[in-house]
Write a structure and sequence with these properties.
alpha/beta, Barwin-like endoglucanases, 2 domains, about 30% helix, binds zinc ion
Length: about 140
């Protein structure tokens, strides 16, 4: 009988540990409550789309320079909101660092638009909601 009680106690302790572990995980999913997650706190959610130099994406500006005057470069160029100056480096979740060199049409201002060299890649990226951090 004593043995059974001990087993029950162990099971209870284990359950408590599991519950704590799960709670811990849930807390970890809320970076704003963790003091060491400052980097994430400064990131904001943005709609991120993609484009390429083709006529479908750029219309009459197809093949031309970006709004900043620079030629777009895949892996570097991103179009950003008008509130962010050209040359500003941004970090985009799952994408990496990009430089704001272009603008979107006014009705899409407030989004980020990633430059890709091919329409296929731009289509594959599609439209996502991602964390974006403006780098100093
Ligand atoms: Zn395109």
């Amino acid at each position: 009988m004593e043995k059974e009680t001990a087993t029950t106690m162990r099971t209870l302790t284990l359950s408590a540990c599991l519950a704590f572990a799960i709670t811990g995980l849930v807390c970890a999913g809320q970076p704003q409550k963790r003091p060491n997650a400052v980097r994430l706190e400064q990131a904001e959610l943005y709609t991120v789309t993609a484009y390429c130099p083709c006529k479908v994406c750029c219309g009459k500006w197809s093949g031309g320079p970006t709004a900043s005057g620079k030629m777009p470069v895949a892996g570097i160029t991103v179009a950003g909101p008008r509130s962010i100056p050209f040359g500003t480096r941004v970090w985009i979740e799952g994408v990496g660092e990009r430089v704001v060199q272009d603008r979107l049409a006014r009705k899409y201002d407030g989004r980020f638009d990633l430059y890709f060299s091919s329409h296929k890649e731009a289509l594959r990226f599609g439209k996502r909601t991602l964390k974006v951090r403006i780098l100093p």
